[in-house]
């Protein structure tokens, strides 16, 4: 195939490579995450552990789970962890996947049809409009996912978990929660993607007829 890679020495080509890398990093950090809430109980002086695991798309549905089933002790606490944060997570991941697919497509256009890109006024305009759309999508999906992540942290917090069967003799079990560092990074990557796509607007705009026309007007005026 006759490919022209010189465009990747230009800012618009370099930015697309960055889009590719950070789009993958953003949605992969969400889809590959696995969290857990561990209940470290003790019944009849015997340790008993229950681990509730959750992952993407973060639909938490632990409802009145008994931590001491079948035990002869009178202590039978039940726990509930309820929360659906799938819409925010899926919006974020969908934005990342669509951004990845568009970036692959436009990279191919840059490399294979660079001459057409520079001579056909419509192609740069389409590139610019789609870049605007993805900048807006990254901003809105990152904000939504940041809100969803906040809700996920709240739902799995030891002070928020729902308990039943608790009294003076049957107390809550100690709870340990997995770290959210990967998901925190995903939010940062989301807003970083917004910045990269917004910054690329200038370089794509310079290829459009709007910019070229303005340059021509300025040159004629001089």
Automatic annotation (TrEMBL):
Keyword Amino-acid biosynthesis on entry: no
Matches recorded under PROSITE patterns: MARVEL (PS51225)
Cellular component GO terms, alphabetical: synaptic vesicle membrane
Main localization category: membrane
Residue ranges occupied by any MARVEL domain in the UniProt entry: 7-209
Subcellular location as annotated: Membrane
Keywords, alphabetical: Glycoprotein, Membrane, Transmembrane, Transmembrane helix
Topology term for the membrane: Multi-pass membrane protein
Pfam families from the UniProt entry: MARVEL
Transmembrane segments: 91-113, 125-146, 185-205
Keyword Repeat: no
UniProt similarity note: Belongs to the synaptophysin/synaptobrevin family.
Name this polypeptide is given: MARVEL domain-containing protein
Organism: Ignelater luminosus
């Amino acid at each position: 195939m006759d490919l022209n890679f010189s465009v990747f020495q230009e800012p618009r080509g370099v930015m697309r490579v960055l889009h590719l890398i950070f789009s993958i990093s953003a949605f992969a950090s969400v889809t590959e995450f696995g969290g857990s809430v561990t209940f470290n109980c003790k019944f009849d002086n015997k340790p008993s552990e229950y681990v509730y695991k959750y992952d993407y798309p973060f639909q938490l549905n632990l409802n009145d789970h008994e931590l001491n089933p079948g035990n002869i002790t009178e202590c039978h606490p039940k726990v509930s962890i309820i929360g659906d944060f799938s819409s925010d997570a899926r919006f974020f991941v969908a934005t990342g996947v669509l951004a990845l697919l568009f970036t692959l497509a436009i990279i191919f256009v840059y490399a294979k049809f660079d001459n057409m890109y520079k001579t056909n006024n419509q192609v740069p305009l389409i590139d610019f409009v789609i870049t605007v759309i993805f900048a807006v999508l990254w901003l809105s999906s990152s904000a939504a996912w940041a809100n969803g992540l906040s809700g996920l942290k709240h739902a799995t917090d030891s002070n928020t978990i729902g308990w039943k069967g608790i009294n003076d003799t049957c107390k809550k079990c100690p709870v340990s929660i997995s770290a959210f560092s990967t998901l925190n990074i995903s939010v940062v990557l989301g807003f970083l993607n917004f910045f990269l796509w917004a910054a690329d607007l200038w370089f794509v705009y310079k290829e459009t007829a709007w910019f070229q026309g303005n340059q021509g007007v300025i040159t004629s005026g001089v």
